Amino acid sequence: MNTWEDPAVPAVVKPDVVTFTIESHDGIARLTVHHRNIADDEQLAIAGRGWSAVLSNLKSYIELGRPLASVPWEMP
Hints:
alpha+beta
């Protein structure tokens, strides 16, 4: 589990909590990411785009042995 806080967000807002679970599923590894305490719908949308980029890059690294050619959050 990881937590982090954005210094730009008021301290009264709870920090985000991210939990990673890796388990065996039908002979393969399954990674589950739970991201909790997201402040609002705007932050949820931003986090969703961010996780899609991070997990796509992780998938490429695991399958190909190298990250994506471009930083995923800068791809069109």
